Amino acid sequence: MKITFLGTGTSQGIPLIACKCDVCTSSNPKDKRLRVSVLIETEGKTFVIDAGPDFRQQMLRENVSELDAIIFTHEHMDHIAGLDDTKAFNFILSKHVDIYATKRVQKAIRRVYSYIFEGLNYPGIPKVIMHTIDNNTFSIEGVKFTPVEVMHYKLPVLGFRIGDFTYITDANHISEKEKEKIKGSKVIVLNALRKEKHISHFTLDEAVKLITELNPERAYLIHISHQLGLHDKISEELPDFIELALAHDKLSHINMAEEYNEDNINKGESLFKKKYGCMACHSVEGGEVKGRVGPNLSGVGSRLNPDWIFSWLKNPQALHPNTAMPNFNLPDKTAAAIAAYLVSLK
Q1: How many CB atoms lie within 10 A of CB 233?
Q2: CB-CB contact of 225 with 202 (8 Å)
Q3: Is residue 131 domain-shared with residue 16, that is, in the same domain?
């Protein structure tokens, strides 16, 4: 499974129109946040959770050429305002777009996009097929989705668990019953709007507390407001007793359990020792020590989580902004192969 954060911002995005704060005027790409959405690629299928006003830009940026379904969490405009742009997939893929939503969300979509559902066969109108879901497990193309009902003030919103991955946006309360669905997830994504109390969103402290309780191997924070602060500064403030990071647009996460195989280990060893010259800074058992900038990696596979190693290789500064390790902008498969090799060092 590969997860790509299409957008990690609030309903207004970052920068906000006309705002001159430090975050909105930051030159750091990680402080530029489109409206929240996530791309999930698993078992040969491609899904998007929520299609907000930046949907077209997000699809183009990530070069998405296949789409098996869009699953909606709720009906607020920052989550449904991009539905009209699904018509590109109608044309390119020669099929309707499958949409999964509760009856309440479908009612809102039909109201906002009434022209789609009036029965007019006008060229250019998006062609969609509505599928009704509720708070019970359902499958799309053989992939199981388990809804997790959370509260967005007084509005019920659905998060989703797919395998060991749980995604929750726009929440400020989760019942004990629904938490049971989340427990055991290896990766959890949760909203953390800002530091100050908010009527309908978790604060940073509330999100950290909940993630600590649920105890995943890895967690990411999304739906971030400019009021939270600069990405790098807040990343430095995050607790180090849990594997937690601020997500940012374009960040991806791969399930390393699916990448750990002999071919990847051999490929990763070659990339590590030859192409990227990692032995200049690190030593491994049986390897020549050429530099002492980085730690000895002998036995690293017994000390560190595979998913953490992958995330570190992809973007070390996202985890530790002041690290001396350069960001090589590694492609996902390259980072996964090197991670597989490092995990084999036990």
Answers
A1: 12
A2: no
A3: yes
Q: Range of 164's domain?
A: 2-254
Cβ 189 vs Cβ 167: under 8 Å: yes
Annotate 49-84 with three-state secondary structure.
ECCCCCHHHHHHHCCCCCCCEEECCCCCHHHHCCHH
Asked if 124 contacts 94 with a C-beta cutoff of 8 angstroms, the reply is no
| 143, β-bridge pairs | 140
Q: Say which amino acid occupies 118.
A: E
pLDDT in tens, 60-118: 999 999 999 999 999 999 999 999 999 999 999 999 999 999 999 999 999 999 999 99
Q: What CATH number corresponds to the domain at position 327?
A: 1.10.760.10
| Residue (of 187, 194, 138, 140) closest to 165 by Cα position | 187
Interval 226-276: pLDDT, tens = 999 999 999 999 998 888 999 999 998 887 777 888 999 999 999 998 898
Residues 194 and 331 grouped into a single domain: no
Q: For residues 198 and 172, what is the distance between their CA atoms, to the nearest angstrom?
A: 8
What whole-number distance in Å separates Cα of residue 272 and Cα of residue 344?
Answer: 13
- Together in a domain, 217 and 249: yes
Q: What is the token pair recorded at 91?
A: 């044309």
Residues 23, 151 within the same domain: yes
Cα-atom radius of gyration of the chain, to the nearest Å? 21
CA count, 13 A, side-chain hemisphere, 77: 7
The DSSP letter of residue 227 is T
Closest to 37 in 3D by CA, of 9, 1, 77: 9
Helix, strand or coil for residue 177? helix
